[in-house]
Design a protein that fits this description.
Elements: E1 3-8, H1 16-24, E2 29-32, E3 41-45, E4 48-52, H2 58-61, E5 65-68, E6 73-74, H3 76-88, E7 98-100, E8 105-106, H4 109-118, H5 129-138, H6 152-166, H7 172-180, H8 182-192, H9 200-208, E9 213-216, H10 240-247, E10 253-261, E11 264-266, H11 279-288, E12 300-302, E13 304-305, H12 306-316, E14 320-324, E15 334-341, E16 347-353, H13 370-383, E17 387-391, E18 399-401
Helix pairs in contact: 4-5, 6-8
The chain binds 6-O-phosphoryl inosine monophosphate and magnesium ion (MG).
């Protein structure tokens, strides 16, 4: 059963979009199983740069059926904007190729409002993700099935009445604004109605027929609500467990692909043991252009943390590593990697020699500088998982294929 899953091994922004795009060409189905528009996946084809937040990256190559699974939370306005932006770039999105699960939850304007008021200290993307999932588990959310049964506007009014009782922080004036916005929102939802369809029977059939299925993770393992650096996490299961609850049907992922950045970044608040606050960190940010695709925030940067990645491999059962952004490590005399954390949580480093050569766009492992090869081998030996692919630049052709992925 050729089922693949791609997940971020760190704190997100590992370069998942590019790899999903490379794989998606060969896929019959691409599935998002958690998260929402907090994700930001950049895909570059030649001179064209696509940014997706909600829609699986498979729409860009256009060969697959793309599913937003039941585990996602979806903001109708953001979705429509994203669809329109992609259409403008020549990507055709039809109900045959794009499906929103009726069991997925809606992110509503009130969720964005609450995110801003209540979750600032976590440094969220303010896309309403946490409050939408709160509604889901409280059993007061609105699911996409409401887009189809004509009861959406009424559900919104009841929902706001309920939240008004729960949250004193939503002032009278804001409530009025939110209520006034319902008809426009209902019109947006109406436009998306043709895309709402139960994806589970389709997926089950695809599994039976041995179709190629790719699950596209968003965020990263340490942003997982259970396994991450709680409370500085997102509100969904970003690791492999989320794929089972959020995708719809059982499948046996024969390739569990870690997207692992060759150094570490993080956006928002929360622990980050190998973070660099000096010129070295600044250099990583510059080399890697580490600014958020969703919020534009500068990302926090630091050395590779193999101690953490060991946990990530354990949780997700990774059996293939895509090592990304290696070309951003050129020009460092030494590269440190954390191989342990001391009792105070401070990283214990090993220093490896760096390399000077610019390796942007390299496609052959053998031609990489000796020290670069040594760095990569150190990582796979330490983790006990092979680095099957090395990404050497933003373009889809900037890739070294060491082991077949398909
Ligand atoms: P991709 O898919 C990096 C972070 C936010 C914040 C925390 C909670 O592009 O890798 P949320 O809005 O989810 O409630 O914010 O999670 N975060 C991400 N960081 N990449 C992402 O997505 C992220 N999605 C959420 O910065 O610290
Ligand atoms: Mg991102």
């Amino acid at each position: 059963m050729p089922a693949y899953i791609v997940m971020g091994a760190q704190w997100g922004d590992e370069g998942k979009g590019k790899i999903v795009d490379v794989l998606a060409e060969k896929m019959d189905f691409v599935v998002r199983f958690q998260g929402g528009a907090n994700a930001g996946h950049t895909v570059i084809h030649g001179d064209t740069r696509y940014v997706t937040h909600l829609i699986p990256s498979g729409v860009i190559s256009g060969n697959s059926v793309n599913i937003i699974g039941n585990g996602c939370v979806v903001d109708p306005r953001t979705l429509l904007e994203e669809m329109e932006a992609l259409e403008k770039q020549g990507v055709r999105i039809t109900p045959a190729k794009f499906i929103i699960s009726p069991q997925a939850h809606m992110v509503l304007p009130v969720h964005r409002y609450l995110d801003k008021l209540l979750n600032e200290k976590i440094g969220t993307t303010v896309r309403g993700i946490g409050p939408a999932y709160t509604d889901k588990v409280r059993r007061t959310g609105i699911r996409w099935e409401r887009a189809c049964d004509g009861s959406f506007a009424e559900a919104c009014r009841e929902h706001l009445d309920f939240l008004e009782k729960v949250y004193a922080v939503i002032g009278k004036e804001e409530m009025e604004k939110l209520r006034d916005g319902i008809p426009a929102l209902a019109a947006t939802v109406e436009r998306l109605r043709p895309f709402v369809r139960d994806a589970r029977p389709l997926l089950a059939q695809a599994v039976k027929e041995d179709s190629n299925i790719l699950y596209e993770g968003a965020q990263g393992t340490f942003l997982d609500i259970d396994h991450g650096t709680y409370p500085y996490v997102t509100s969904s299961n970003t690791s492999i467990g989320g794929a089972y609850t959020g995708g719809g049907v059982f499948l046996d992922f024969h390739k569990r692909i870690a997207i692992m950045k060759s150094y570490t970044t993080r956006v928002g608040e929360g622990p980050f043991p190998t973070e660099l606050f000096d010129e070295t960190g600044e250099k990583l940010r510059r080399n890697g252009n580490e600014y958020g695709a969703t919020t534009g925030r500068p990302r926090r940067c630091g050395w590779l943390d193999l101690h953490l990645l060991k946990t990530s491999c354990m949780i997700n059962g990774f059996n293939y590593i895509v090592f990304s952004k290696v070309s951003c490590l050129s020009g460092f005399e030494t590269l440190k990697v954390a191989v342990d954390h001391d009792p105070d949580g401070k990283p214990v480093y090993e220093a490896l020699p760096g390399w000077e050569e610019d390796i942007l766009g390299y496609t052959d492992f053998a031609t990489l500088p000796e020290n670069c090869r040594r760095y990569i081998r150190f990582v796979e030996d330490f983790l006990g998982v092979p680095v099957g692919m090395v990404s050497t630049g933003p373009d889809r052709d900037h890739v070294i294929r060491r082991r077949p992925i398909l």
